[in-house]
Amino acid sequence: MLKCQIVCVVFCALLLESSIALNCYQCSGSDPKEPFQCNEWLTSDIDIKPEPCDNVYGAKYCIKHIGRFEGGIGAKRFCSSLDLGNYCNYVQQPGDILNYRTCVYTCTGDGCNLATTAKPSYAWILIGSFVWKFVHQLAR
C-alpha cells in the first residue's frame, strides 16, 4: 500500500511541475528582424518554438492576438496572467478609412497559442493510463 501512495505522490508532483512551467509562443508580426515568423497561422516551416513565460508574473494563459496593433496588421502571441477571453471586434482607429477585424484568443497549456483552438495532450493520457495500471497492480 505504501508503494501505491509513493507512486501517486510522484505522479501528482510531475503534473504539478508541468502546470507551473507554462510555455507559450511569443512573437510579434511587427518584429522587423523576423516579420514573417509570426502570422495568423503558424506553419511547420517556422523557426519559433514555445518559450517559458518566466518574464510574466503569475502567467497562466497564452494569448493570440490577430488584427491591427502597433501600427500594423498581423499577429502577436504572448503570455498573460489574465484571461483575456475569446472575442473578435471590428475597430477603426483615428485616420483609418477601413474597419479592421481584430481577434483575441486565450488558452491554457504549453504552446496552445499556435492556432485558434487548443489540442489535447495525448501523451498525458497515455502516461496516466500506464500509471493507473501500475498502481492497480501494486494494490493487489
Automatic annotation (TrEMBL):
UniProt signal peptide: 1-21
Alphabetical keyword list: Glycoprotein, GPI-anchor, Lipoprotein, Membrane, Signal, Transmembrane, Transmembrane helix
Biological process terms in GO annotation: regulation of synaptic transmission, cholinergic; sleep
InterPro entries: QVR-like (IPR031424), Sleep_regulator (IPR050975)
Coiled coil: none
Entry keyword annotation includes Repressor: no
This protein's name: Protein sleepless
Membrane topology: Lipid-anchor; GPI-anchor
Taxonomic source organism: Exocentrus adspersus
GO cellular component term, pick one: side of membrane
Main location: membrane
Organism domain of life: Eukaryota
Subcellular location, record wording: Membrane
